[in-house]
Amino acid sequence: MKKVHLAIGAGLLAMLAGGHAARAETVDKIVAVVNDDPITLYQLDKEMADKIDEIKKAEGNNLQKEKFNDYRQQALNLLIEEKLLDQEMTKHNMTVTDADVQKSIDSVMKRTSLTKQQLIEEVQKKGITFEKYQADLKGQIRKMKFMGEFLAPRVKVTDADLDAFFAKHPDQFAPYQSVEMAQIILPLSETASDSEISTANTQAKEIINKAKGGGNFEDLGKKYSQTPSTAVKAIYQSNMLAPQIVEALTDMKPGDVSQPVRSPLGLHIVKLYERKTLAGDEYKAVREQLREKVFEEKLEEELQKYVDELKTKSYIQTKSST
Predict the structure, then answer these.
(1) What is the rounded distance in angstroms from the CA atom of residue 146 to the CA atom of residue 31?
(2) What pLDDT does 6 receive?
(3) Where are the alpha helices (DSSP H) in 213-279?
(4) pLDDT digits (tens, 9 = 90+) for 91-131
(5) Whether residue 288 has pLDDT greater than 90
(6) How far apart are CA 147 and CA 151, in angstroms?
(7) Which of 175, 210, 231, 241 stands the most exposed, by the fewest C-beta atoms within 10 Å?
(8) 33 and 68 in contact (C-beta within 8 Å)?
(9) What is the pLDDT of residues 125-149, one digit of tens each?
(10) Strand 316-318 with 234-237, pairing
(11) Nearest partner of 46 among 19, 84, 65, judged by Cα
């Protein structure tokens, strides 16, 4: 296994090994001050320790010192933002009771069909204690309560937002997308010889030229297609089509005829008539689901904007974190 080149300080190495001496050395060293609150080297090292597996997974075994330091700076920026938000929540007396936490745990158990003991075991498998899980949950609930009270009222979701979200994330709504198309299929086995492939491609190009030249696609299908019925235009759900066909359709416009598309069935020549989008009853069926997704995305944007505003109004000083 190649050596991983990580510029990890002695404090973090000791923490990963479970040492206690490092905590005594790093807990009092201040790496940033946010208004009147310090962020210690110990807190930064712990944040990096929590993310070290994620970093290695993203970067592989060739992570250099400069790149590691970039991740370290990102971790410090995250701690600063969390500190600013925590100060705001404290200022607004945002509290979470034990009953709030228990209600959330009950919801998790109901949703996952786990008993409390099973939930504890699942949490421990992830390397954290149930007490830490409860503390993290408490922090998440506090943050959500703050966002719900102070940021959610700022978020407005319009019909234009819904349309834009759908266009940006079409894969999430694949079952509701469809195309009106027809196809001519020339049989060709997956083990076809070069000669057979060449013959099929020649015939496909001949069909394409005739179709683009004004030939009736349905008539061409009767003459050439393995299954003439597929040459009759029909509506297909996008998620039911072969991936190769979906990819070919991506850049096509209504009226276009594709180049030969290979699939396990053979060579496909596709004509696109119309691209369907969410509308009518189909749109109504997913409208609230879509609105919820858009709201969540815009709420996160509003949170980042809020924290950025806090940064401009706050005293923030950073120091050496090594």
Answers:
(1) 27
(2) 37
(3) 217-224, 243-249
(4) 999 999 999 999 999 999 998 899 999 999 999 998 889 99
(5) no
(6) 5
(7) 175
(8) no
(9) 988 899 999 999 999 999 999 999 9
(10) unpaired
(11) 19
* Residue 68 to residue 322: CA distance in whole angstroms: 12
Residue with tokens 């994330």: 169
Q: What is the pLDDT of residue 39?
A: 94
| Residue indicated by tokens 């000669």 | 195
Look-up: residue for tokens 């009950």? 106
Beta bridge partner(s), residue 34: 37, 316
Q: How many residues does the chain have?
A: 322
In sequence order, what E strands does the chain have?
A: 30-34, 37-40, 178-187, 234-237, 261-263, 266-276, 316-318
Q: What band does 10 get if pLDDT is binned at 50, 70 and 90?
A: very low
pLDDT-derived band at 304 (thresholds 50, 70, 90) equals very high
d(CA 185, CA 134): 59
Which amino acid makes up residue 206?
A: E
What is the set of domains in the chain, with CATH numbers?
10-91 (no CATH), 98-155 (no CATH), 170-276 (3.10.50.40)
d(CA 204, CA 198): 10
The answer to whether residue 51 scores a pLDDT higher than 90 is no
Least confident of 111-115, 118-122, 184-188, 279-283: 279-283
Q: Which two tokens stand for residue 211?
A: 């179709």
* 54: number of Cβ within 10 Å: 10
Tokens of 320: 């050496």
Q: How far apart are CA 131 and CA 36, in angstroms?
A: 28
CA dist 49 and 310 (Å) reads 27
- Classify the phi-psi angles of 42: left when phi > 0, otherwise alpha if psi is within -120 to 50, otherwise beta: alpha
Cβ partners under 8 Å of residue 93, min gap 6: none
For residues 270 and 182, the answer to whether their CB atoms sit within 8 Å is yes
